[in-house]
């Protein structure tokens, strides 16, 4: 489980084909401080498992299912990714509860800079997922916890402060770029619990 507060930006240094999947090697620093084999790392929104680590990098395997549900098959050596270690239950929950399970690949359809250096970003997602998107609710974009400001028929928008743009890969993105999207976990649980009662009605 994660919070959606990115700890650092890593750089993809190696992509190795392995059967139907691939292995990423990612250069990092902060998250290597206490890293262990088997640790869960949120890599641009997707929970991946550490299978190797070195002095300045770590490796994780991506199976075919992961490649289908993320935009990671579009990445190349030299691309950047957001990184966050799994939370400890004694930590402050500064963002919101994030599983690292991608629900959709979104596309940025509008990206503009506001007065003061903030950003206004609009992302198109699959319309069925919009039932989990609520005004002022939380959503995870490339592993970043954000607050929804507007909702349309097939898209939603959020404002992003300059700090978030500077400290995550979202500041490097623009119109047309793909993003990994995870909707709020609590919304999905509530829907699951309410479905039997809705069907009875």
UniProtKB/TrEMBL annotation:
One of its GO terms (molecular function) is riboflavin synthase activity. Keywords: Repeat, Riboflavin biosynthesis, Transferase. It is an enzyme of class 2 (transferase). Pathway: Cofactor biosynthesis; riboflavin biosynthesis; riboflavin from 2-hydroxy-3-oxobutyl phosphate and 5-amino-6-(D-ribitylamino)uracil: step 2/2. Transmembrane segments: none annotated. One of its GO terms (biological process) is riboflavin biosynthetic process. Its EC number is 2.5.1.9. It catalyses: 2 6,7-dimethyl-8-(1-D-ribityl)lumazine + H(+) = 5-amino-6-(D-ribitylamino)uracil + riboflavin. Residues 1-96, 97-194 form the Lumazine-binding domain. Lumazine-binding repeats lie at residues 1-96, 97-194. InterPro entries: ATP_synth_asu-like_sf (IPR023366), Lumazine-bd (IPR001783), Lumazine-bd_dom (IPR026017), Riboflavin_synthase-like_b-brl (IPR017938). It holds the Pfam family Lum_binding. NCBIfam families: PRK09289.1, ribE. Homotrimer. Catalyzes the dismutation of two molecules of 6,7-dimethyl-8-ribityllumazine, resulting in the formation of riboflavin and 5-amino-6-(D-ribitylamino)uracil. This is Riboflavin synthase. It comes from Protochlamydia amoebophila (strain UWE25).
